[in-house]
């Protein structure tokens, strides 16, 4: 196999079909099951988008009510998950905490399944597992942050929808509608993005006929890296390092001289800007106004314009979502777990799609190690 046939990082390689979402860098658009993501973010609760990703259609009022009822049943932290989280040191990264919690949920739920031959589950079982995981994640993320802050667990509230309840469990007070709306939009924008690295990891795991929980655990591992989901956390580290808009030019001179990657910029597929950024930036603007923090908007705009002018590389979704989550009051280390809570919907939609039309994912490699050789003196 010649060098030119190898596509490092599978760049530009089409590996399968998907009907879950369409990313189009030419038209700078993103469709979930045919619907533009901007339209969904402007009109739908996150629960309806989760339903859409799993079922292919937006829910009727009754279907949405049923999903909401089911989601409420699985909102509370279970004893096993709480005990597992409490065993972890407070210094553990929240991504490791959430990964562990999902693993525990899987082990408990799969307890009676016996053989690995039964692991992959029926379509009905996998849809139910998806709903349960999506319902359980907010309490895990919220409790993790509260534990690190030395605060008590807050129980979920049945009278609140997904986003309002998530913020309630994280902060112990009812969030302002402006904040709930911005948060809901961020969940929708983060929910799905075709064959990104974490989704592909989930599909690879699913392709071996492993179970949905194992696939989600693997996806969380892939999402943690700063070249993928970890970038929303990294954006805030960078913004804190820069301090204010006045420092951007000098900071950027040094960072680029040191050949640093500027997190929150660039994308494997979008080369002229991420389709989701304008919607998330608009949500960030509402938060800037709500919290009266023009300094955040100034730093955001200055770093964006300077970096684009110098490198021609545009922000991705993690760039506006990082400061948005910070304004809402989340700890920086909690940002990527928020991404998990949203993306679990897309991951599980892909897991079910992969399972429904499976082929073991096992590409080839070109060997470039030492040529065949033999142990001197024969066998020891
Ligand atoms: C929700 C998401 O997961 S979106 C992605 C979040 N990740 C980040 O924000 C991390 C920062 N960005 C990056 O590292 C990259 O842009 C990636 C990984 C997202 C995409 O990478 P690729 O498509 O593989 O592009 P690649 O990394 O090869 O970049 C091409 C060139 O642009 C440069 N470049 C790309 N992004 C950046 C950046 N953020 N800062 C500085 N330079 C960059 C690269 O150094 C490379 O330069 P070179 O040709 O001189 O070597
Ligand atoms: O598509 C990608 O490579 C990364 C991304 O933006 C996402 O997963 O949301």
From TrEMBL:
InterPro entries: 2-MeCitrate/Citrate_synth_II, Citrate_synth-like_lrg_a-sub, Citrate_synth-like_sm_a-sub, Citrate_synthase, Citrate_synthase_AS, Citrate_synthase_bac-typ, Citrate_synthase_sf. The keyword Transferase applies. GO terms for cellular component: cytosol. PROSITE patterns: CITRATE_SYNTHASE (PS00480). One of its GO terms (biological process) is carbohydrate metabolic process. It catalyses: oxaloacetate + acetyl-CoA + H2O = citrate + CoA + H(+). The active site is at 267, 318. Keywords: Acyltransferase, Transferase, Tricarboxylic acid cycle. Pathway: Carbohydrate metabolism; tricarboxylic acid cycle. GO terms for molecular function: citrate synthase activity. SUPFAM superfamilies: Citrate synthase. The keyword Transport does not apply. NCBIfam families: cit_synth_II, PRK14033.1. PANTHER family: CITRATE SYNTHASE, CITRATE SYNTHASE, PEROXISOMAL. Belongs to the citrate synthase family. This is Citrate synthase. It comes from Leucobacter viscericola.
């Amino acid at each position: 196999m010649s060098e030119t046939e190898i596509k490092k990082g599978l760049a530009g390689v089409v590996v399968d079909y998907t009907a879950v979402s369409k990313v189009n860098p030419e038209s700078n658009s993103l469709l979930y099951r045919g619907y533009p993501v901007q339209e969904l973010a402007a009109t739908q609760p996150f629960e309806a988008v989760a339903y859409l990703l799993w079922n292919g259609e937006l829910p009727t009022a009754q279907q949405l009510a049923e999903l909401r009822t089911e989601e409420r049943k699985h909102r509370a932290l279970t004893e096993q998950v709480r005990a597992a989280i409490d065993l972890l040191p407070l210094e553990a990264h929240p991504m490791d905490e959430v990964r562990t919690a999902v693993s525990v949920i899987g082990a408990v739920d799969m307890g009676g399944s016996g053989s690995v031959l039964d692991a992959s589950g029926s379509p009905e079982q996998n849809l139910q597992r998806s709903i349960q995981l999506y319902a359980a994640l907010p309490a895990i993320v919220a409790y993790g942050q509260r534990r690190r802050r030395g605060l008590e667990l807050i129980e979920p509230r049945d009278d609140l929808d997904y986003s309002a309840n998530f913020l309630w469990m994280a902060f112990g007070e009812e969030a302002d509608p402006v904040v709930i709306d911005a948060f809901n939009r961020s969940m929708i924008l983060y929910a799905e993005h075709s064959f990104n690295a974490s989704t592909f990891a989930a599909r690879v795991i699913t392709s071996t006929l492993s179970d949905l929980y194992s696939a989600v655990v693997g996806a969380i591992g892939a999402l943690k890296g700063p070249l993928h989901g970890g970038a929303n956390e990294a954006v805030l580290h960078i913004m804190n390092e820069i301090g204010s808009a006045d420092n951007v030019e000098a900071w950027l001179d040094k960072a680029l001289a040191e050949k640093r990657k500027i997190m929150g910029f660039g994308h494997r597929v979008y080369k002229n800007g991420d389709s989701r950024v304008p919607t998330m930036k608009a949500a960030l603007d509402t938060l800037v106004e709500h919290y009266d923090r023009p300094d955040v908007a100034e730093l955001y705009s200055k770093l964006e314009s300077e970096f684009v002018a110098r490198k021609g590389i545009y922000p991705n979704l993690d760039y506006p979502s990082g400061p948005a989550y910070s304004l809402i009051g989340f700890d920086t280390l909690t940002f990527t777990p928020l991404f998990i809570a949203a993306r679990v919907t897309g991951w599980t939609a892909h897991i079910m799609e992969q399972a429904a039309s499976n082929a073991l994912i096992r590409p080839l490699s070109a060997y470039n190690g030492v040529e065949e050789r033999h142990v001197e003196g024969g066998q020891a």
